[in-house]
Amino acid sequence: MKPLEGIRVLGFENQVAGPYCTMMLAEQGAEVIKIESPGTGDSAREMGPIVKNAKGEKQSGYFLRFNRNKKGITLDIRKDKGKEIFKELVKVSDVVVENFRPGLMDKSGLGYDVLKKINPKLIYAGISGFGQMKGFEGPFKDRTAFDMVVQSMGGLMNNVGEENGSPQWLGIALGNIYSGVMASYGITLALITRGKTGKGQYIDVSMYDNIISLNERALTFYSLTGGILARGRDKLVYPIGPFRVKDGYIAMIIPIESIWQKLCKVLGREDLGTDERYNSGPKRAANIDYLQPIIESWLKDKTKTEAENLLIKKGVPAGQVQNAKDIFECPHAKARNMFVEMDDPILGTIKMVNMPLKMSDVSQTKPNPAPLLGQHNEEILGSLLKYSKADIEKMKSEGVI
Questions:
Q1: In 246-347, which ranges are E strands?
Q2: Strands 8-12 vs 95-98: parallel, antiparallel or unpaired
């Protein structure tokens, strides 16, 4: 049995943060009904990679990443009938997740204050760039946010890149994905609380807040010392980061002195391990111009595998810098079941990244594919809300669905 079986979630969602949240809930057994606009749907359906099958039918890999295990319907909430159907769904659901611009749901007459009167047990998670809960409204509340914007404002980009170069994006939609994770965490807590009190609640998830929380190292350093950590050489830890070898790069980190002494033995330089000039991370960082050539010289004639094995054998944390192909072929990732096969109606059998969570009494199952646009209209409207076929056809003709 999955932990969230019997929980129904309405995902009025787009792109990444909302869909990632509801995908996590669906993975654990929740029935997720993804609500999209008629005709166009989630804008993620338009984003690459766009792959065609032999018939020329297109599928978006971007959309597939975040929407498996969901049922999909279309609904135009701008129309009165669309609003009515949304409210009917809320009556028979446990959770609403939405990540549209702040104020949209309120202006549509479907905000939390309205919906909680329809269903007092409703848990409503609103994901936005800068947060929107009353009492916590900042000056950026109404801004539209994208992942790169909040990575920039939250300080992560300031930490990444060459010392004299420009700030760099991290290369992943961390603000979106982590906000989805935090929203699912909040929903889980709210479900536990509802089990005790019988009441639902509103959950306010801010991408900016989440990035700030991930930047805790630099912010703690500033709080305690007044110093600002920036991109380039780390001032607190050394050795750290990627190092070039014969066929690519390996990464290692030396966080404590016992591991520094182990590295010195691997390098054949035990004298460095007892030298007071190098007996702390900040001291070694200050002497990087002396130490770096010693490490580079030892690594230069070794392959990634050779260097990794020699370091790990002596207790030095290290790993190869891998690309996507390397990870797909990694025996450990395979043993951890980190790739799962899914039968997509357009592309056939494909492999996707699996959810990382393992639980002893919750089995991992083969996921259902992401829904086609409006695929489950008749099932949800007919079976769940008891509309007749004639009603459904009428709604189609009127553009409600």
A1: 248-253, 318-320, 339-344
A2: parallel
What is the per-residue pLDDT across 13-46, written as a single tens digit (0 to 9) for each? 999 999 999 999 999 999 999 999 999 999 999 9
Amino acid residing at 241: G
Residue 273 to residues 39, 263, 264, 270, 286, Cα–Cα distance (Å): 66, 8, 6, 5, 16
Res 128: pLDDT: 96
Q: How far apart are CA 136 and CA 141, in angstroms?
A: 9
Which residue in 124, 71, 68, 70 sits closest to 93, CA to CA? 124
Q: Looking at residue 89, what is its pLDDT?
A: 98
Contact indicator for 115, 122 with CB cutoff of 8 Å: yes
d(CA 309, CA 299): 12
Residues 337-351 as b or e (16 or more Cβ within 10 Å = b): eeebebebebbeebe
CA-nearest of 361, 359, 342 to 351 is 342
pLDDT classification of 231: cutoffs 50, 70, 90:
confident
**Residue 367, preceding bond cis, omega within 30 degrees?**
no
Domains plus CATH for the chain? 8-214+338-397 (3.40.50.10540), 240-325 (3.30.1540.10)
Instruction: Name the phi and psi angles at 189, rounded to 5.
Output: -65, -40
pLDDT of residue 230: 83
Output the CA angle 296-301-303, nearest 5 degrees: 100
- Of 119-128, 153-162, 307-316, least confident by mean pLDDT is 153-162
Rounded mean pLDDT, 335-342: 95
CB 318 within 8 A of CB 267: no
Distances in Å between the Cα of 112 and the Cα atoms of 34, 120, 123, 125, 328 are 18, 10, 9, 9, 43
| Complete edge-to-edge strand list for the sheet that includes strand 240-245 | 240-245, 248-253, 318-320
Residue 274 tokens read as 């007892």
For 303, the token pair is: 């392959």
